[in-house]
Design goal:
The chain is mostly helical. Helix content is 80%, strand content 4%. The protein has 2 domains: 5-98; 126-260, Serine Threonine Protein Phosphatase 5, Tetratricopeptide repeat (Alpha Horseshoe). The longest helix has 97 residues, at 27-123.
Length: 262
């Protein structure tokens, strides 16, 4: 262990002094002085070593305590970091779950909106064109008319009568009414229900005299009257047809039939 520089200088000075005085003392006294000096040097060195060791021990203790404190702080910090990571992971999981729930809600809302729009479209009036006439009709009304007409075109005239009677009952003044009366009358004519057919043909002409089917209805009404052997009424119906609709194809046919009726 290194001794302090000041202490070494002191020892050397002491030795120099002792050597200079060696001639003044005898050997015993010189040895005694040297031993005494050595003891003093050893005492000083021991004291210095003890102080240094004490200081080193204290510094080591402080350092150890500081290191322990640092370790505890690091452990606490690590625990806090792990806790934050766990909390962040939980929060991320919550956010992902919420995001899925929001996505599901948005999808269900979109499906509900689309379903509502589809239902509303089914209820909203649509523009239709029938027998030269354009008008707005409920989708259900259009569907029912088309279904009844499809039955007629399959040649199921009795079933067609039932379908058109029910249709007219539900929509007596709708845009389809004149056309429905026309096809009802034709279905009745096909089943030889001439009297009811005449009633419906007359109603069509009275309801919509400018309808595209009105000339044909008048001609069909005359045919019913002919089948019933009511020639007088048939001649009048044909004459009225020619007068009311002179430019129609039905008027040309009416002229031929009128010429054959006696």
């Amino acid at each position: 262990m290194k001794l302090p520089v000041r202490f070494v200088a002191f020892v050397i000075a002491g030795l120099g002094f002792s050597a200079a005085q060696a001639g003044l003392f005898d050997d015993d006294e010189a040895r005694k002085a040297i031993l005494d000096l050595r003891q003093r040097i050893e005492a000083v060195r021991a004291d210095s070593e003890q102080r240094l060791n004490s200081r080193l021990t204290e510094e080591g203790r402080k350092t150890s305590e500081e290191n322990a404190q640092v370790r505890r702080s690091l452990i606490d910090l690590q625990n806090q970091i792990e806790a934050l990571r766990s909390e962040l992971a939980n929060q991320r999981g919550v956010n992902e779950r919420l995001a899925r729930e929001v996505s599901d809600l948005q999808r269900r809302q979109k499906d509900a909106d689309q379903g509502m729009e589809e239902r509303l479209r089914k209820l909203e009036p649509v523009k239709v064109s029938v027998d030269g006439r354009d008008f707005m009709a409920d989708p259900s009304e259009k569907r029912e008319f088309d279904e009844a007409l499809a039955v007629f075109r399959k040649g199921e005239f009795s079933a067609a009568q039932v379908a058109f009677v029910e249709f007219i009952r539900r929509s007596p003044r709708g845009g389809y009414a004149p056309s429905a009366l026309f096809w009802l009358g034709n279905a009745q004519y096909a089943t030889r229900d001439y009297k009811e057919a005449i009633v419906n043909f007359k109603e069509l002409i009275a309801l919509a005299p400018d309808h595209l089917r009105a000339p044909e209805a008048a001609l069909s009404m005359a045919n019913c009257q002919i089948e019933l052997k009511d020639v007088k009424s048939a001649r009048k119906t044909l004459a009225d047809l020619i007068k009311a609709y002179p430019q129609s194809e039905a008027a040309d046919t009416a002229k031929e039939r009128l010429s054959r009726l006696k």
